[in-house]
Amino acid sequence: MEEKKNTKREPLMNRDITVCLKGITVLLMLSHHFFAFPQWQPRMDFYDWSLETFTKIGYATKITAAIFAFISGYAYCYAKKKNYQYSLKKIGHLLLRHLIVAIPLTLLSLLLGVYSFHPGNIVLECLGVRNEIMVFSWYVYFYIFLMLALPVLVHFLKDHPAWILISGLVLGNLLSGLIYANIPHSWETIRLVFTNCWIYFQISTVGYCLARWNVGDRFRDLLSKLPSWLICVVSFAGVVVAFLIRMNFDRKIITVVDGHPLNISFLINEEWICTPLLLFSLCVLLTSFTHAHIRKALSVLGKYSAFIWFWHALFFGVLGQYTRNILYAPKYPILVLAWGTLISLGLAFVSDRLLNVILRICAPREPASSSRT
Fold first, then answer.
1. Which single residue of 151, 209, 210, 261 could bond 165 by disulfide (Cβ 3.0 to 4.6 Å)?
2. Considering the entire predicted model, what is its pTM?
3. Mean pLDDT across the stretch 311-320?
4. How far is the C-alpha of 86 from the C-alpha of 89, rounded, in Å?
5. What are the distances in angstroms from CA 179 to CA 100, 201, 227, 284?
């Protein structure tokens, strides 16, 4: 009797494709930070494109934090053990990567006299709460919050993913709105920290629930009924529509009760809609219509995405006055993006080697086994 063949298909967002998605996200993130902030840019040759146009394109790429939040929730669904041991391990890995970059940049800032030493500020900088040196590291504190909150939510509602989704959306919209509307501007740091946490928490819960419901695979199966050329067109259209939503719709505060002492407000965020549309569309394109060499290049960027993210802060913040002209030396935007990516990738490669050495040193050693004769 012949064994029954295993016909189970790979998930649409499998490990290899997810790494490629991280590579794409890193390029979007660099584009956003390099071009969406005119105050950071020296004069560049923008061909016939206006600065306003480039700023608009840069703003459209302000979806990268939502992508990473979605992927974090999506990946959590596939974790074998959804407990605090797993969460603390993931938090530790991210913090270690952050410290490998933050320590040399902090020392360099102190050496150049552009940063004043204060123990409290150093701790907050390492957690991403303060961003004088590590300008774009606020996601670190969000990730800590997410990995501590998800085990609680999933434990109580693990058999009811719909309630996880509803809880994430309601809590995300309501609490971020309440915090934004009621915490005074004089407490801007606290206001920003809690607002960011709840805004992106809802996107992570969307990622978790769509993974539970296999929405990505169903999206692929639905498209598979179409001719190949039409699958490509529909997937590309999904990418375009996602970016158009991001470009033309912004977060909005809707005040329900404008009273004292409490304003009851909702923060409406469109990213939980356009992010899965973008990612699932990209997954189909990467799986079926992208050359292997392109996927390999994207996977390299994805593998080092965390270090690239941390290292490109070198060009901004307190060190920017010394390094920004190096970044923008090529003048033309596409060359600036390639140059900045290459520098960040090189630093990321070295940092990854250091990380591997640290992990080998810290790894528990197995006792030598003795054999009896």
1. 209
2. 0.89
3. 92
4. 5
5. 33, 14, 49, 38
